[in-house]
Specification:
alpha/beta; five-stranded mixed sheet; 324 residues
Length: 324
């Protein structure tokens, strides 16, 4: 039996926080471990937009290699960074309980003008109610490197401008403050986990997240039963099921980080409720799907949802993205 489990992680603040959480939870179960820091391709090149980098696994390939070369025993990832199919020889060992799945907008400048423009108001009015009281009067510049976030934003606010923003969360927050942009979009869980969510931020309740956003995943070698057993002690079955459904939806649509595909599965009493969509790159076209199934029968829900979306015209959007 291993005396010290080697945990591989990227060296960004968020990645180290996530790996440290796994280390702490393993320690609660009497398992000693150490962190091994590995820099990914996605961390080194902070200029090239993700959609130009062949993004499937851009943040995970280096850790995959370290696992397969036996430099580490387990790797900790933001689950949304994982490709829909793991590298040969690797398997999912655990998914931790999910944090917030929501995207947030961190804004700057005259906050009330921006919020009025977006249709938000510091009262208990819903977004739909406030839209009847406010018409957009300002053109905004919003930063993100995610084609999913860009497409959903332009679908809702077609008059706005989108700028590319790369780097870890610390770097992106700094770039935002040094820029003339009005705001930038982040995963809420990432900023909240390391205590960096600014007061000047709002949750984008209308924006569907990336598949498995907010979840932390542990990966190990297929042949390493000991490491799998240790990591699997931390597995949350409900989160694992919901993220599997979301990843299945993405896989059937043959999407990745460079495709504007969103998915969210949530437990609702005894059922799983699923929402998903796909948009054209410019945000003008959008096709959505929404399904519910009893939790006991929901294992194939993501596949069924993807097939329904394709029948509704999603295949045409995917074809146009490939041609582009």
């Amino acid at each position: 039996m291993k005396k010290l489990l080697r945990i591989g992680t990227r060296d960004s603040q968020l990645a180290v926080w996530q790996a440290s959480l796994v280390q702490q939870q393993l320690a609660v179960n009497g398992i000693e471990s150490e962190l091994i820091y590995i820099k990914s391709e996605g961390d080194i090149d902070l200029i090239t937009p993700l959609y130009e980098m062949g993004v499937q696994g851009v943040f995970t390939k280096t850790l995959d290699a370290a696992l397969l070369n036996n430099r580490i025993d387990i790797a900790v990832h933001s689950m949304k960074d994982l490709p829909t199919q793991l590298a040969q020889g690797l398997r999912q060992a655990a998914v931790l309980p999910r944090a917030s799945h929501k995207d947030i907008l961190v804004y700057k400048g005259e906050g009330q003008i921006l919020l009025d423009t977006l249709g938000y108001h510091p009262t208990n009015l819903s977004h739909e109610q406030w839209l009847t009281h406010s018409e957009p009067t300002h053109l905004l510049t919003i930063a993100t490197s995610s084609v999913r976030r860009k497409a959903q934003w332009l679908n809702r606010y077609p008059q706005h401008r989108i700028e590319n923003l790369r780097g870890n969360v610390n770097t992106r927050l700094q770039k935002l403050q040094e820029s003339k942009w009005n705001g930038a979009i982040f995963a809420g869980a990432g900023l909240e986990r390391i205590g960096l969510r600014p007061k000047e931020s709002i949750e984008l309740d209308w924006m569907l997240p990336a598949p498995s956003q907010g979840a932390i995943c542990i990966v190990c070698r297929e042949t390493d039963a000991v490491s799998f057993g240790f990591a699997n002690l931390l597995n949350d079955e409900a989160t694992a099921l919901c993220t599997k459904i979301e990843k299945d939806f993405l896989r059937v649509l043959m999407g990745g980080c460079a495709t504007p595909i969103s998915a969210l599965a949530v437990v609702d009493k005894e059922s799983i409720h699923f929402q998903g969509n796909i948009l054209s790159l410019n945000g003008k076209e959008k096709i959505s799907v929404e399904l519910s199934e009893n939790s006991q029968n929901a294992y194939q829900l993501g596949i069924l949802a993807a097939e329904e979306l394709l029948k509704k015209g999603g295949d045409q959007i995917i074809a146009s993205i490939r041609n582009a």
